[in-house]
Amino acid sequence: MNHSIRFLIILIAALSFSLNGRSTSIRCTNPEYANEELTFYAFADPISNNNKVAFTLKFNSEGTCEASIQIDEPFFTFSEFGIYRGMLLLEPGVSIDLKLPPLKKKSFADQKNPYFQPIAFWIYTNNGDMLNDKISRFEQKLNELTDRDFNALYFQQSEAAFNRLKAGIDEAFPEKGSESFELHKTLRLKLMEADIFRMSPEDYSAVFQSISPKFWGHQSFKTLFDKTFNKQLSFSAKAIGGAKVSAAVAGENISALLDFISTKYKLSGTMADLVLLKMLHDGFYSKEFPVKAIKNMIASKHFTGNRETKIREAAKNVAAKISFLEKGSEAPAICLSDISGKKLCTNNSQEKFKYIVFADVETVICQEHLKYLSRLNELFNKNLDIFVVLRNTDRAGIDSFFEENKVPATVLIDTENKTIAEYKVRSFPQCFLLNEKHQVVFDDAKAPLNGFEQQFGTWLRNELFMRQRNQAR
C-alpha cells in the first residue's frame, strides 16, 4: 500500500511539472544592485497594454540574486529599473546568468517628466551565447547598418539600400537560428520596411497569418501588430465604402467584420479574431462607435468561448479594461497612511461625495491646484469629502507644504506608488469624483483649477433636485 501511495505521489508530481512547463533559472551578481529588487513583467495579452508579473529578482546585501519560472515556450519579459528598460526572452529549461549595466537611478527631472522614456536594451548574459545575446547582437548590427545608409533609406526610400541592409544582416547571421530569433528578425525587418517605404497595413499584414499564438507576447510581435492595426477601425470607417464597416459595428455583426478583415488584410481564423479584438478595443477609445455594440461584441461567445486560450484571455482583459473606472462603475477603495501615519480608507464613510485628487506636491502646477481646494471646500463642504493622494516624494517637502497652506483635505501618501498604478494615473494632477457608494460619477472629472467647480456645481444641483423629487413621490 505504501509503495502504491508513493508511486501515486510521484506520478502526480510528474504530471504537475509537465503541465506547468520546464523550470528556467535566472541568476545575477552585481554589487551595485545590492538590496535592490527588480520586477520583470510580461504582456498580459497583445491588446490591452496590461502587464503581469513574471518573476522578481531580489538582490541580497552582496548583490546576488536568483529566481526561477516555469515556462513551456519562449517567454518575453521586461523590467524597468532606474533609467533602463531591460528586455529578456527566456527559453524553457535553460539557466541564464544576467549581465546588468551599471545601476543609474532616474534624475529629479526624469522622475517629474511624464513623457520620460527609459533606455531600452536586450540584457546580455555572462554566457555570451544565449538567445538574448544573439538578439542583442542583431539589434546592434541593425542599428549599425541603418545609420550607415540612413539618408538613402529614409529620405530617398532606396530599395537598393534596403536590400544592402538585408544582405548585411544575412551575412552577420548566416546560420539558421531558433524559431524565436528568426521570427524576431523577420518582424523587425518588416517593421523597418513598412516605415521606409510608407507601406499601408494591407500591403504587409499577411505576414501575421502564420505566426503561432505562442509568440504573441513577444516584443517584436506586439510592436509590429500595434503599428499595423492601430486605430484601423476608425480609419476604415472614414474611408470610401466605410459605411459598411460602421454599420457592421452598430449591428454587432462579427461575421461581416471578419469578412472585412479577410478581404482587406488577408487574414483569417485565429489571427483575424485577434485583429478584430484589437480594432474593437481601439474603436471603443475613439468614441466614434456605439459603446454598447462594442462591449456586446467583446463579451460575445465568439471571443469568450473562443477555441484559442489567448483570445479568451485577451477578451477578458479588454472587457475589464474598458469598464474600469467608467461612469457608474465601483472604484477600488484607496487605503493608505495619512501624513500622521494613520491608516485611512476612502470608502470608510458613505455620507458625502468623494473628490480624489492624485498629485505630486513637488510640482508647481500641482501646488496651485491643491491650494484651490480651499475654495472648493468653502463651496461644497456639506456634500463633498476631499482626498489628496500624493506621489511619494521628499517627506519634508510634503509636510512643509501642507502645514503652510492648510489644505482642507485628507492627505494620503502612496508610498510605493501602487495606488497610482492601479488607477492608471499617468500625469498629475488627475482627479476622480465618486458618489457615496464609491461609484464613479464622471468619465472625466476636472482638476480644481480646470473647471471642477462648475462641473460639480451644475451636476450637484440637478442631482439633489432629482433626489428630493424622488423622495416626495
UniProtKB/TrEMBL annotation:
It comes from the Bacteria. Residues 328-441 form the Alkyl hydroperoxide reductase subunit C/ Thiol specific antioxidant domain. Signal peptide: none annotated. InterPro entries: AhpC/TSA, Thioredoxin-like_sf, Thioredoxin_ResA/DsbE_sf. GO terms for molecular function: antioxidant activity; oxidoreductase activity. Coiled coil: none annotated. PANTHER family: PROTEIN DIPZ, THIOL:DISULFIDE INTERCHANGE PROTEIN DSBE. This is Alkyl hydroperoxide reductase subunit C/ Thiol specific antioxidant domain-containing protein. It comes from Draconibacterium sediminis. The lineage of its organism: Bacteria, Pseudomonadati, Bacteroidota, Bacteroidia, Marinilabiliales.
